[in-house]
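$ run holo --ligand "zinc ion" --emit tokens
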Amino acid sequence: MDYQKLLEEIKSKIDIVDFISEYINLSKTGQNYRALCPFHPEKTPSFFVSPSKQIFHCFGCGKGGDVLSFLMEYEKLSFIEALSILATKAGIEFQINKSSTYSISKDKLYRIYEIATEIYSKKLSESQIAQKYLTERGINQESIEIFKIGYAPEEKDFLYQQLKKLGLDEKIIKTSGLLSNFMDFFRNRIIIPIHDLTGRIVAFGGRLIEQESTLPKYINSTDTPIFKKGNSIFGLWQAKPYIRQKGYAILMEGYIDVILSHQYGFKNSVAPLGTALTQEQLNKLKNFTNKVVIVFDSDEAGIQATEKILQTLFHKGFIVKIARLPDRQDPASILQRYGEKTFKNFIAKALSPVDFILETKSKKTLNEKVYELLHKIAYMNNLIYREELIKELSEKSTINELTLREELKKFLSSLKKERTSENKSDTNVLNEEETLLRIALSFPDKIQPLLSKIELETIENQIVKQIFYKMKNIADTDKKEVKNDFRVDKFLNTLTEEEKRFVSKLIISAEIDEDYIMENLKDCIKRLKIKFIDKKIKELSKSADKNLLQNLIRQKKEILRNSYEGL
Ligand SMILES: [Zn+2]
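-- output --
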């Protein structure tokens, strides 16, 4: 299989800006797009995507490359896995070579979940109990289809038998998390698929149908190579375009809450899997927005969960509001009973964290409440928002602002050990070798003359040298291609990941002024040659060979005089 050819075809069909936009929020800046880097924590965006070159680069952590590199890094996939996903996305037939040494077990797991989803979905259409349950919860056919809801019957090994009948690999079935001790993991449950950000189903949530059972109401698939509970947010795949559009996300507790909210038009709703919200989940969400409205259940547990989540959200720099529902209600029950207008009202009247904490009924005194909130605010990464909240807290609690600030200071100094290792961005000054490569990448017509003027052997930077050699290779085998049709993205396909990173950084970090390329080029070549000769002279200075030395000095003079008209 010619992977380079395949990658080339993929890239002709998938635009890197569109593709990365599915994962993170890109905004246009000049010729490029920028964003907060998904690969390292940062407050100011240093992640860039170049549409003209079809590459990305982060100046904070140094990650960079093409669409394939991005997918591999973001989803932690092998080369083959990422390639196969991209091929499918681009609508290209792609068969993995059996003898391939790459792991394809993940692909098989995705396939199993896809098949299981179909099986459960078919079962739902046959089951009256399951359909009745969904109708009672107010879920319509459209939602069933959008969320690919299904039903796992009560039988011990219904799914297992079906999967075996289809001839699926027993070993893979076992690692799928869909079985436990040869029994189906999900039984007599409504099956709610959990998607990853590329839209693949990676796990299931199961809602018990029976009301009087002692079993847990909700269970999730166990962690597998394709699913980690703490990494996924339910509904984010369906919600992401709407979160962008509306500028905020609605965070709720349950699957059914999210499904009904989407059904009633609140399509920017998502839920963590379980009540705790992890840093990883928030990182995913942060790629789409930094504003959330929390709508948890109005019971004691819901209030506690909200208070707990506030700190994590603050720490991640989220701007938070909390919608408070009447006693014993959740988003699903409000929507079902009172409709979207009422729910919309609750969202519109969402409280600031200060109001929420101060107004919530509890045994705590005002001072205790203020103290707790201050503690959460201390974690806040968004300084402007922090200022606002402190002012508000002072106003509403009538505690002097200075007193609050003094308290906050104490908290902060105890938090001080937290390192603020924001990476300082690299300097953008290129040396001669880098400049030459940079020019070659942007002005393919200069490649041939350039290669004829420099001796690749003398290049000191190993990566630059390797890349030039690969360039020369193409130039030698197909001179026409280099002259007229040299495309950086195509050339990238021939590079290693490390080389790709280097090239993408070079391209995005330094714009070349077209008016001065020639001067730049000549100047660099000259300086390189002189550098090389100087090195030799230094080496030889100890030896007695005067002739050789004289010769070198003559060469140097000649270079200094030479203007490289041939370029
Ligand atoms: Zn980064």
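-- notes --
The radius of gyration is 30 Å.
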